[in-house]
Amino acid sequence: MIERILLLGMFLIGFWGIVSRKNLIKKIFGLNIINNSVVILFVLEGSRAGSSAPIMEQGISNIVDPVPQALMLTAIVIGVCISALALALAFRLYKATGTYNIQEIKRKVHNGF
Amino acid sequence: MNGPIIPLHLLVMLPVLTGAAAYFLPRRAYQAVMFAGTLAVSVFALQLFISVRWGREVTQFVAGWPEIIAIQLVADTYSAPLVLLTALFFTGTYLFSTLAGYMDKTFMFLFLMLESALITIFLSGDLFNIYVVMELAMITIAILIMYKQEKQAVYDAMLYIMMNFIAMAFFMMGIAYVYRLTGVLDLRVISSRLAELQDPRAALVPYAMIMTAIAVKSALLPLFSWLPRAHGAPSAPGIISAVLSGVQVKAGVYLLIRLNQVFAPVVDTRLFFLVIGFLTAVAGFLLAIAQKDIKLILAYHTISQVGLIVMGLNLGSDEAFWGGMYHIINHALFKGLLFLSAGVIIEEYGTRSYAEIRGVLRRMPVIGIATLAGVLGITGAPFFNGSISKYFIQIGAQGSLGEFGLYLVNFGTILSFVKYFTILFGTPEIEPKPSRDPFIAVISLIFGAAILAGGIFGSQAVALVFGPSYSAAGALSVEKTGIFLATLALGIAVYRYGIQRIGNALSAVRTFKFSFNQITVLISLFFILLLGFSYTVT
């Protein structure tokens, strides 16, 4: 139970970061924290049956389900790609407007429509 | 009837492989190769559609793994027509923009990658695979929107990514709980295992999580703020707006159908989505009326039509359901055509404001006719395809409160397009010059002809594409035509004497957008609302 509460806390920290910070980079950090909390949650839920991994040793029973971990490797890679793209866009916006503050960016890119 | 000529995973890979191979060729050659690639995908998709429609559905386990473990690709009555639509749509829009200046290698590669991703979403029978391709589509779309790197477009792409990333976090959390409950990711097996659950309520939390993400993807009521930014991004090429509005939003709607079927043994939320669909449709046209930018009028209008489709799918009658499915195709045709022609108009006139564009019919006759066909289709004019699907949806709603709602939505559609209509007439400031681009003319006319044919042969088209056969004779009855003309007259009158007078009040609505923070909070609220609703009905 304690792990789930910690993960909920982690999720909410990310959420808080997204909502309350004005700095674009910090918002992207928030997204990452949310994503990571979900990844850990997924691995946690996937490891309820079985506990050990059949690595380097013979004859281990009680093997943990490998599918969630394999899936989460994919999810982590996707998360990295999206963070990279988001950071690149944030930098592009910084070069165009001279600020990372999302409200100022919004004001400066607004073009009349 | 034999199965498909090529295995499904090759169909999925073909666009992106073509794009990658063509990347190393000189300009002339790569355009030809890429066009051949999209054309081949269309041919294979057509063959797949034929073998599914008149044969049986195709299921494939990728890489020969046994069921349950393998990633499954399924082509059935729902997905095969949409795959065909996607393939033809991409071929058409590709040809339309062949001579446009922005069609360089990278752009084309990403464009084909988006085609692959969308086809995979339609064919995928595996929950996690859907997650991966949705993320792929999201990254591709973000880059395509800001391809010209104009700063507003970069900002729009940024917000698009962030909103969708949060939605996808919900989706992944939902997958985690579904996996914990059922131990599988395969949609069919999930469905059968959910039916065996001792406590069906355990599945409601993952259901609400997944559906919240899907609601963001299909731009339902409080969560649609990303759509006008993405679809109406000022500097995004017309071809991208067309593809996003024509096909990509439909992927969200398709998943809404698919995943609601998967969770059908556990929960029935049709009433919820019916109401949300109606509210989405109303909010969409209200915002569309207030816009000045022709692309934004179209983008908000997409929201309204998605609402209409979702209403049709959730009314609970067969006619309305297939009417909704048919409207998915119809909307792709006319909205695709409208966005493509809007792209050309904007380039020709150098402005996006509807007030400054006049006399399109005289200055660019072909584009004018195409726009006219699109507008007639979307407003549901008799003899055009929109009238058929709207008629079917209306049958399903007969005698209920929904029927009144549909009249309201139709009225709003017409009202917002009376405004769009004004760009066609009047005298252009510059003398017309002959069009240099034969592709634009040919493709516009093909799309226009399809819109007309889909209306004249309405019930046959539904029977041909989906199977069930309903009579659409009533769509052409005097009563329906009378209602359409009366609504049109009312729309013009309201526009003349109402909307134009209150221009200043509209500007408040026009600039109304949920901010990023509000969207984040609304996603959570939507989740709680849907969860609460599912608990009360289960």
What would you say this structure looks like, in words?
The complex is a heterodimer of chains A (113) and B (538). With 113 residues, chain A is mainly alpha-helical. Chain A has four helices and no strands. Chain A has helices spanning 2-20, 24-46, 67-97, 102-109. In chain A, 27% of the residues are buried. By secondary structure, chain B is an all-alpha fold. Chain B folds into three domains: 1-125; 126-256 and 504-538, no CATH class; 269-501, no CATH class. Chain B is built from 22 helices and two strands. Chain B has helices spanning 8-22, 27-53, 79-96, 105-123, 127-145, 151-182, 187-195, 204-217, 226-231, 238-262, 270-290, 294-314, 318-349, 360-363, 365-379, 385-397, 401-421, 438-456, 458-465, 478-499, 503-510, 516-537, and strands at residues 58-61, 72-75. The longest helix of chain B has 32 residues, at 151-182. The model of chain B has no long low-confidence stretch (mean pLDDT 84). Chain A binds chain B through residues 15, 18-19, 24, 27-28, 31, 34-35, 38-39, 41-42, 45-46, 48, 65, 67-68, 71, 74-75, 78, 81-82, 85-86, 89-90, 92-93, 96-97, 102, 105-106, 108-111, 113, and chain B through 128, 131-132, 135, 138-139, 142-143, 146, 149, 151-152, 154-155, 157-158, 161-162, 165-166, 169, 172-173, 175-177, 179-180, 183, 185, 234, 292-293, 296, 352-353, 516-517, 520-521, 524.
Summarize the structure.
The complex is a heterodimer of chains A (113) and B (538). With 113 residues, chain A is mainly alpha-helical. Chain A has helices at residues 2-20, 24-46, 67-97, 102-109.
Q: What spatial form of chain A do the alpha-carbon principal axes imply? A: elongated
DSSP E strands of chain A, number: 0
Give the quaternary arrangement of the chains. heterodimer
Task: Please give the most extensive interface between any two protein chains, plus how many residues each contributes.
Answer: A-B, 41 and 41 residues
Mean pLDDT of chain A: 85
- CATH topology title of chain A: Helix Hairpins
Question: Roughly how much helix do the residues of chain B carry, as a percent range?
Answer: over 70%
The arrangement of helices and strands of chain A along the chain is: HHHH
Order of helices and strands of chain B: HHEEHHHHHHHHHHHHHHHHHHHH
**Low-confidence runs of at least 5 consecutive residues of chain A:** none
Tally the helices of chain B: 22
In percent, how much strand structure appears in the residues of chain A? under 5%
The count of β-strands of chain B is: 2
Sheet of most strands of chain B: 2 strands, antiparallel
Number of H- or I-type helical stretches of chain A: 4
- Structural class call of chain B reads mainly alpha
Secondary structure: helix percent of chain A:
over 70%
